[in-house]
Amino acid sequence: MKRILGVILAASLGVLGRRSRRTLWSARRAARDRLKIIAPCFTVSGTVDHIGRPRDGDTHIRLTLDPAFEHILNDGNRQYQYGALVVEIVCAYPVTLKVAKASCEAFQNPLGVPQVGDHIIVVGPLVEDRGHHSWREIHPVYQWRKE
Asked: What is the pLDDT along the chain (147 residues), one digit of tens a residue?
């Protein structure tokens, strides 16, 4: 099923190729150092509950997971993210935080951003963010599509 989903996603939307993924990870060294990888490539689905636009140019999405994926949440998600998974599309907006500007200069994100209420499928590394209560995230998003 995951293989079929990956093929569908790759055929349907803007997808980050391997080269773009390497550029993205090398540009985001600070994030890479605090993120503990649980699974290098993971697929989830759910409904967009909230979209935040921090000054680093990224998009922070709270995704209310479909029941089949709720088992991946931890106490950090339940206590600090309203029981949702954080989904981070990097370099989606102009960077206004001076220390973060260089990280998006070498990377143009082609993915776009969903809207609140959209039911989406997301692919990317499943990580624990040790800098933020160790909640779990898909960070960075490699692909997504609206269902």
From this structure: 444 344 333 433 445 555 444 545 544 555 667 899 999 999 999 999 999 988 888 899 999 999 999 999 999 999 999 999 999 998 888 888 887 777 787 777 889 999 999 999 999 999 999 988 999 999 999 999 999
**pTM for the whole thing?**
0.79
Q: Under a CB-based contact definition with an 8 Å cutoff, are residues 106 and 27 in contact?
A: yes
Q: Helices H, strands E: what count in the chain?
A: 5, 6
CATH architecture of 2-146: Beta Barrel (2.40)
Per-residue tokens: 47: 């409904």
